[in-house]
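Please fill in the sequence for the structure shown.

STRUCTURE ENCODING:
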């Protein structure tokens, strides 16, 4: 099954993609995580991507598209995959459709819908583990010990791009460049809307139900 996750920054795409990846045993491919991994490793790609990410802008398509195409061509993607954070522009969606033309495109685009007010609250409360990648929220999904990752014991941090002014910029980029993809996949008959304001287990249950399993 080839799934893409659509939704505003902070809508819960990553949280749901991880759960779906476990359920369906297919890889979770997050372009944001790939870029953050490159930043941490100090690569040239990471250096270039950081400039855009810290400003709340999109990383240019020429740095993004080939990276994803290479990744989905790897052997662990034969059974399918979950793309989280890609495509994010109409050009990226068209490039993906071209690449998948022989296979009949993606199976489903899961649109996790959350209003902007809730997004700002979620992002300002998000804390992530820089060591193992686990994600928390100071109120909704707190760590058991304050500030310490439940999974690996490292100190959790706030993402650089979760500062209030950057969040507003990311939201405006989302509405302008990514939201139109909802109609692109709707016209293809492959889009499902999910109420992302529910508790995360209920969001997951709704997605699984709409995927027909
Ligand atoms: P990326 O890492 O993809 O960020 P994003 O899309 O902005 O999404 P987030 O990771 O912020 O949020 P999410 O929807 O995954 O929510 P999460 O599950 O964490 O991209 C970062 C940057 O990289 C971009 O700005 C861009 O610069 C660049 N980039 C990436 N892909 C690109 C591309 N294709 N092209 C160009 N540039 C690209 O949840 C958020 C919070 O809410 C967490 O604290 C979580 O615990 C909590 N939460 C989750 N679900 C619930 C729930 N149901 N109820 C209450 N709280 C919840």
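FILLED IN BY: designer on duty
SEQUENCE:
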């Amino acid at each position: 099954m080839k799934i893409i996750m659509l939704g505003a920054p902070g809508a819960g795409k990553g949280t749901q993609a991880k759960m779906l990846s476990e359920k369906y045993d297919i890889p979770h491919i997050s372009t944001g995580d790939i870029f953050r991994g490159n930043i941490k490793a100090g690569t040239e790609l990471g250096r270039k991507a950081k400039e855009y990410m810290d400003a709340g802008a999109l990383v240019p398509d020429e740095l993004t598209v080939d990276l994803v195409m290479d990744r989905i061509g790897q052997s662990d993607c034969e059974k399918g995959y979950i793309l989280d954070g890609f495509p994010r522009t109409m050009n990226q969606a068209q490039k993906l459709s071209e690449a998948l033309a022989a296979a009949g495109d993606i199976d489903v685009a899961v649109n996790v819908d959350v209003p902007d007010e809730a997004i700002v609250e979620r992002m300002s409360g998000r804390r992530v583990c820089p060591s193992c990648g686990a994600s928390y929220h100071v109120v909704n999904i707190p760590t058991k010990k304050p500030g310490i990752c439940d999974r690996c014991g490292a100190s959790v941090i706030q993402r650089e791009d979760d500062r209030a002014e950057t969040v507003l910029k990311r939201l405006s980029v989302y509405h302008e460049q990514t939201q139109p993809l909802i109609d692109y996949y709707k016209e293809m008959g492959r889009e499902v809307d999910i109420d992302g304001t529910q508790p995360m287990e209920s969001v997951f249950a709704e997605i699984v139900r709409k995927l027909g399993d």
